[in-house]
Each structure stands twice: as structure tokens, then as C-alpha cells.
Amino acid sequence: MKTVGVAILGLGVVGSGTYKILRDHREFYKQTQGVDLSVECVLEINKQKALDLGIEESKVSDNIAEIVSNPNVDIVVEVIGGVEPARSFVLAALHSGKSVVTSNKELFCKHWHELERAAKRTNAGLFFEASCVGGVPIIRTLIDGMQANVITNLTGIINGTTNYILTRMAREGSNYADILKDAQALGYAEANPAADVEGYDATYKLSILSSLAFHTKVPLDKIYREGIADLKTCDIAYGNELGYTLKLLAIGKNGKDGIEVRVHPAFIRKDHPLASVNDSFNAVYLKGDSVGDIMLYGRGAGDLPTGSAIVSDVIYAATHNDVKYATFKNTQQAEKGVKFITDFRSRYFIRFTAKDKAGVLAKVAGIFAKYNISIIDLIQKGEDCENIPIILITHETSEFSVRRALEKIGELEDVVSVDSMIRVEG
Amino acid sequence: MKTVGVAILGLGVVGSGTYKILRDHREFYKQTQGVDLSVECVLEINKQKALDLGIEESKVSDNIAEIVSNPNVDIVVEVIGGVEPARSFVLAALHSGKSVVTSNKELFCKHWHELERAAKRTNAGLFFEASCVGGVPIIRTLIDGMQANVITNLTGIINGTTNYILTRMAREGSNYADILKDAQALGYAEANPAADVEGYDATYKLSILSSLAFHTKVPLDKIYREGIADLKTCDIAYGNELGYTLKLLAIGKNGKDGIEVRVHPAFIRKDHPLASVNDSFNAVYLKGDSVGDIMLYGRGAGDLPTGSAIVSDVIYAATHNDVKYATFKNTQQAEKGVKFITDFRSRYFIRFTAKDKAGVLAKVAGIFAKYNISIIDLIQKGEDCENIPIILITHETSEFSVRRALEKIGELEDVVSVDSMIRVEG
């Protein structure tokens, strides 16, 4: 039986999970995959972490050169995260002809081409299933399951932290700041939560997923981004009354006019399959021209779910000789002809506060009409007070028109404030 | 660029869909997959069908020998269905060294080993993604996405016809026979609906899926099977009151005591992701020891969704040289040590009709207690009549105990009839 040596760079949450899976399933993989996966060494400065996992001291190193020159290592697993030193370590491994399996979405979406070039030079493999949506095999599905399709739409809940926070805000009616604090205490959010709650993490993943889905590199800077920090609990409740659930969506569309990529909070109808993706679960909804609608659902993060994706890539790398790159085949960079749409179209949930005076609604309606925006639903919350909240949902219209209309509405004498503008999708 | 020749055996619904996808995407596959897929010939007795699709007359044949001896054909797509002549045709193709892509679940689950042996003899490929759950890449996921996991549970809604009928029975409150008639008129059910409504189709797919998930051949005759023809609309309504949705489930479990495989109607909680899989949609819910819960959702049938799975396999076969068999690596037949569980455990929804007399419930409760069955929920529908329906839901217990208890209950003087026993899962 073929023995394949694995090195793990970094024993953080995902690295430890990966080690445990490889350790506990070694016999199982021999039986079911016909390959003996042996962890030959780990790169970890904190030696105690390795010893606690039962790794022999002789297999622990703090020197990447030692690892990439080890002839027993065939596959290098990079689970350090961030760009440096992960990038240099991955390049060193590829230069030495080792195949690389990585969970590093930031590194991958920022340096995809550099890594791919390095891999091709030495005929090394490069795999990154674990970079997106944890244990859900979305990359394998895009490459080997839906490749017969022209994919036109991709809509994902691809960040577990924000989905956990939004699920609890909806369930408990509590505000963002309180739930975030609790999520941090429980380990669902980082001490510095910016990467998650401001949507950066989702843009990294959307860059990778939409590049694969649309067969062209979608650079990070083409992705419109809004986080969840400014969301108000009352808007979640108002949306609920109207039949909608609020989610942080990652949206990719590929149409005749170009590619549209954005990450922002959005309402979706409660009967949409994505609406019941709750807590830290993730899901990706895809539309292919032949297959129609498909959804993949599962855990998007965590030591063992992400480790599952890494080890699946390790097994794939260990048992396939002629398929080295799990990337797109045809395009070296964003094609020159690709157009990215900035003035996208959506429906909109809008909330503003007006003085309780006759004629306000007529003026507001007039402004919407001027910008060709038609309204589906309008609720005036008739509370007994001077200022009343007004909520409306528009038909599909352009983002720029809505923004201009809201500016004008904000200038009306009897409008106290324009409070919320949330897109409505799906 | 490599040109790969394809032959399609049979231009029925799936064959025609496959041809259309290959025809309309030829340039797209050249660009994105680096391969030119050319349909070299089709096997079809009804020549007009081929001409209507725009296939040149010279490419239409009614002779399998002509096709398998054609040096321009590399991949043979079998979409005839049924065992013969599909089996002979597939064997002929494999003997000639052609790779085979099939959507034929019945053939595959009944003759898997024979086909696999034939493929290995000539080093031909053998692919069957389209045999299960249409366009949903469940086979690819089991083989290349979740292979790092010991899979313990597989629960699927894998037959579109029955799911369509059950969805409409629940939504409209109509009875089985009326909805079936309508489904037949609309093309959702066959004129002879037995394969679907009696659960055979689902057992074929469950045999294939559980064999892959549990790494051992699960023969058809080990699968317990019940169809949907006897279901009563009132039970769907009673279940709904209690928070459950009724589905035809395919269930596979792999535990310490053995493998358990069954296809039967079952209630699942409304908040389970499978509960919102409606109409002709399909889904498979899997539990892996590392990845946790995963669900794949999509269209399980239809010309283009199933064609999507076939063409994905064709592309895979055309672009991979060293991976010939998309089957399990280790087991030639059901391992001798594998135990199959027949007395499985479940919760149970039970409905019986009793005379409205004091003491009936006490007697019934006594019988359940004797068989160690404890009850979660009991509803007595207090309608003003002589005979009243009683509904109860049990805690988890063994199938044999429930059957014995119901026999005894049926023998009670004051029990008019035992009407329904439906398992409760998930």
C-alpha cells in the first residue's frame, strides 16, 4: 500500500482538528481509500501544543526549510491563516514539489495566480476546498459536479459568526451589541470581530467561489461589501411581519451585462431554502442552466468540519496523479472583456421616520415616482406620537436610483430621518 | 485540444436532455474544460426522434455492435433504463474499452459488480452520478467530498414523484388517489406508478448511496420497503398539528450493531431541513463523524437536471486519465461480517379507533407498558360520536415491539380498528 507523508503547518483550531482526523482514521483510510496517510511532521512554535496532541517531539519543527526538504513529506497542509508567513511557506513547499492543501481564504483569493504558477512549475498539486464553507464540498461541486452548467447565480450564507448573531437577534429580539458580546464569550466571534461582522471574510470566500462558478477571476476589489454592525433589531421584526428573514448574503450573478458580486445584509422570503439556515450553519444556493437550483448546506467552520475538507483534499491529492490543480483551467487573470456591474438591481426595504402630518406620504411617493421606483408594500406604524416610522418595500429597481431617492426624501421638511435601507433578494 | 467522442444509447427524456446539453455547450466546454466533446452517434430505433433533435442521419444507429466498434467513440452514455438490453449494451461497451456513463439505477444496483469487473478488465471508466438524485452531485460528494468521514447516517428524499404527491396531499388536504391521477395527467407520475409509489425506485438509489456511504455493498433485499399508497390524508393533518411533516424517506444508518436500510413514509419535525424539501425536489442529509451534518438539495429528475449529472460525468471521464472507477475501492461484495438490522428502532405515530367507553385508554396503556413502550403524546379527538380516533406518539422503541403491541390492541373488545402506524424520524 502506498504511504503518503503529510506535514501540517500550524496547530491552531483547524490544524489540531486536521491532525486528530488523520490520527484517528488512519486504519479507516487504509481500508477505504487504499492509502496510508502518515503525519510526518508539524510546524509549530509552541511545542507543547504538539505534545498535548500526542505528537512525538522529533516530529515537531519550527523551521519551514526543514519541512519542505523532508523527503518523507509529500503533502503540506497550510492552516496558519493570514497572508504572511503563510504565503512564503506555501511557496516554499510548492517550489520543493510538495502538493499543498490550504484552508487559507485570504491568501488564496489574494495570491491565487502566484500560487498556481508556482504549483505548475514543479507539477505540485494545489487544493483549497477548506477555504470556503468549511466541511461543505462546494469547491468540488463547482469543479466536478456542476461543471456541465453555465452557472448564473450563486447566493450564499458563508459566514458562520454573522449568521449566528443574526439568528439570535431574530430569535431573541436583542440588539447587535449584546449578542456580539455573548457570541465572543461563547467563542462564536473573535475578540476583534471585524473580519466577520464587516463582511471581509465573506468577500474572500465570494471571490473564490464566484471565480470558479463564472470561470473568470473575480478580484476582491470588485465586490461590494456591507457588514451587519449597523443593523437594527426592529428592522428584523418589521421584516418578519412582512414574511422575510434577514441574512448576510454573498451574491454572485453572471448575466449578459456582466458579473455582479456583493456581500451585504438582505431580506429573503421565509419559504426560501436559505431562510432556514440558522445559527452557525452555512449554505450555498446555485443556479445552473441545466441543473436548475441546487443548495449545499452544512457547517462552515470549526476544527473537525474544516478538518474534514482538508483531509478530503489530502486524500484526493494522495490518490490522484494527473489532476494537480483544483482551479479553473482557462483563465490566468480577470479577462479583459469581463464587465463588473456596480449599479446592481434589487428590491429594497426602506424605513424612515416622518412627522405625523398630512401630505408626507404623498411627497415621498412623488419622489419615488420621479426615480421610477414602484412600491409593493407600505406600512405606517400608527403609534400615538409625534414621529411615526414608515416602512416600505419597492419593486426591483437600481441601487443608484434608490440612493438618490433616499437623499431627496431625507431633505423633506417633514421627514425626521431615513433610518434603514436593506436589500430584498431571492 | 483533445476531442472526445460520445455515443448516447437511447433518446428518451434523459437521452434527449443529455444531447441538448452537449450540443448547446460544446464551445463552453472547450473554453472552460479544455476538451471538445463531440456526439459521434446515437442508438435509437425511432430515427425520427434523432432527426427532430437535429442529429444527422448518418449518426443514428439501431445496432449496438456498430457503436461499440466505432473508433471515434470514447465514452458511451447509457440512458435506456431497466436491466435488459441496457446491461448487455453496457457490457459490450466496456468489453470494447469504452468508458460508460449511466443513469440506470436499477441496472447499477443489481449488477454493480459484474459491470465493475468488466470495466477493470479493459481499463475502461464507469460512472453513475446520474443514477441517484438527478443533478445533485451526491455520488461525487460521497466519493471525493466526504471521504474523510465515517458516515453514520444518510436520510434522503430521493423520489420526486412521491414527494410531489405528499406535498400536494399536505397542502390541499386531498386524498392520495385524486392527487396521483392529477400527477399522472401532469407528467409527474407514470401511467404505471408502482416503481415510484411503492418505493422501489428509492430502494435502488438507497442501495447505491448506502453502499458508497458505508463502504460495503448493500444489496436490495436487505432494504425494508413500504410505499405511500396507503397513507391517509387525515394522518398528514394530525401529524401537522403535532409539528410534523410526512415524507417518503430513504434511511441508512451504520452503527456498532450493523447497517440499517429502509424506505418508508415517516414524519419529521417541521424545523428539520428535510421538512421544507417540497414538490419534486430531492435532498440527502448526511452525518459524518468529522463534518457533522450536511445536506444536498436539488432536482432529482428531469431531462436537463439528470442530463447535467451525465454530462458532468462525461467531462470527468474525458479529463481524468487515472481515475477510472467512481466506485468503492475495497469491497467486492457484501462483506461477510456485515450485519443488517431488521428490528430497527424508531419513534411511532399510531392512530386507532376506539369505542367511546371508560377504561379503553387504560387497557391500551397497559399493553404498551407490557412491551416497554412509553408514550410522548396522546390526542383523543373528542368528536361526538360512538367511535373516537386516538392518536399517540411513542418514544423510541423497537419495530417488533410496536407490531406486537398493536396486534394485542387490535384484539381489545373496545378497539374498533388500528388504523395507522407511521414512523417518526429525525
Mean pLDDT of chain A: 93
Radius of gyration of chain A: 24 Å
Distance between the ends of chain A: 50 Å
**Proportion of β residues of chain A?**
25-35%
Number of strands of chain A: 17
Shape of chain A: elongated
Structural class of chain A: alpha/beta
Say what oligomer this is: homodimer
Poorly predicted sequence stretches spanning 5 or more consecutive residues of chain A: none
What is the number of helices of chain A? 15
Largest interface: A-B, 58 and 59 residues
Main β-sheet description of chain A = 11 strands, mixed
- Helix % of chain A is 25-40%
Summary, kept brief:
Chain A is an alpha/beta fold.
Question: What would you note in describing this structure?
Answer:
2 copies of one chain form a homodimer. Chain A is α/β, with parallel strands linked by helices and 426 residues long. In chain A, strands 7, 8, 9, 10, 11, 12, 13, 14, 15, 16 and 17 form an 11-stranded mixed beta sheet that branches. A 6-stranded parallel beta sheet of chain A has the order 3-2-1-4-5-6, with helices on both faces. In chain A, strand 4, helix 5 and strand 5 form a beta-alpha-beta unit. Chain A is elongated. Chain A starts with a strand and ends with a strand. The mean pLDDT of chain A is 93. At the A-B interface, helix 2, helix 7, strand 12 and helix 13 of A face helix 2, helix 7, strand 12 and helix 13 of B. Strand 12 of chain A pairs antiparallel with strand 12 of chain B, so a sheet runs across the interface.
